[in-house]
Write a structure and sequence with these properties.
metal-binding, alpha/beta, Aminopeptidase, 8 helices, 353 residues, AstE_AspA_cat, 14-stranded mixed β-sheet, 17 strands, 2 domains, SuccinylGlu_desuccinylase, binds ligand LFNQLBSZ, zinc ion binding, binds zinc ion, OB fold (Dihydrolipoamide Acetyltransferase, E2P), Succinylglutamate desuccinylase
Amino acid sequence: MTLIEQIKRGQFLQATCDFSQSFVAGEWVLDSGVHCQLLYRGVLQITPRELAADAKDIVLSSGIHGDETAPVELIQQIASSVVLGQIQPVHRLLLIIAHPEAINHQQRFMVENMNRLFQVRNFEKNNECRIANALQVAINSFYGTSIAIKPERWHLDLHCAIRPSQHDTFAISPYTDKQTRSNKLFSFIHHAKLDAVLLSNTPSPTFAWYSAEYHGAQALTVELGRVGKLGQNDFTVLAPFQHAILQLITDVALPIIWTSEVEVYQVSRTIVKRHPEFLFTFDDDVANFTFFAEGNEFAVDGDKKYVADTHGEAVVFPNRHVVVGQRAALMVKKASLIFDEQVRVYAKSNPSY
Ligand SMILES: O=C(O)CCC(=O)N[C@@H](CCC(=O)O)C(=O)O
Ligand SMILES: [Zn+2]
C-alpha cells in the first residue's frame, strides 16, 4: 500500500512514521468535495469544496518533539475523521505530524531541539533543520494561498510537558507586536478548558511564534499533559480540548467569553543557560509552576546565582540539560487579563504574586 492509500484509509500517523516507503507527494478529492494534499511527510493540507468569506486558515501541528505523543494521536484522530468523511471541516486546515524519526525513536529530538529553529531559515546541517525549513515553507505557502477574502489565521502547536505540572493543560501565547491575542483565541482557551495561559514577554524561536510573528496568526503553543508512549495516553483530561478543536474545525458558533477559571501568568524572565555547570536548586521531578518566594535561590549558572525577584516567581519548563545558549526555564508571575470587546486581550500584572 502506498503512503497515500494508507492515509486514505485513515492511517495518517502510521503512514507518516513508515520509513519503509519513500515519500511521494500527492492529492485526492473526497466524495464531499474536500481536497486533500499530502505536501511533505506528515504535512496534510485540507481544503473544503466551498469556503465562506470569513473562513479561517488553521494550522494544527504535533510531533515537533518526538516523545510528546498525545498531540500526535490527536492529529491522527482529526486527520482520520476528515479523510473518512466523518467530520466536515469548513476551514482550510494544515495538519502536521512534524518529526516521525524522533517519534519512532521515542525521543524529544535526534540532534537538536526543533522548537528552537523557527527564528530564521536554517543551514541544513541535520534533519531537524531540514524539517523546520520545510515547515516554514509549508506555513508560508498555506497562509499565502488563502482563498477567503480576509482569512483569520490560527496555529495551535501541540506539545506535552516533560515534568509533572500544577496545571495539566496550559497554553503559551508567543510575544509579537502583531495582534495575535484576540478575544476569539482566548475564548477558545476557555472553551477548551485549558487550566492556564502564559503570556510571553520576548520573541522566541518556536513554531507558534513563527506563525504569529511572520503571519500574524492567532498562535499558541499548547501543553497537553505529560510525555508518554504512543497508545498509552489518557484522553479523559484532554476531552474538552479535543471537543473544542472539533468545534473550531466545523465552526460551531461559541460565545466570546473569558472567565477567571483560566489562570493567567506573565513571563517575568527567560533563564538562559550560559555555563556548562548549570544547576537548579530543586529536583528534576519538581512540578512546573512551583513558586519561589522573593529572595529564594532557584538556579546557579557558573558563578551566577538566580533568586526569585520581588513578590516571588514560579518556574516553568526548567531543564538543566539544554545546550549552552538555550532557554533553561521560564519564570512567571500571576497576572490577569483585560478582555477587550474589540479584538485584543491585555495582561495586567497583579500587585503581588
Ligand atoms: O516540559 C518541557 O520542559 C518542554 C515542553 C515543551 O516542549 N514546551 C515547548 C514550549 C514552547 C514555548 O515556549 O512556546 C518547548 O519547550 O519548545
Ligand atoms: Zn514539546
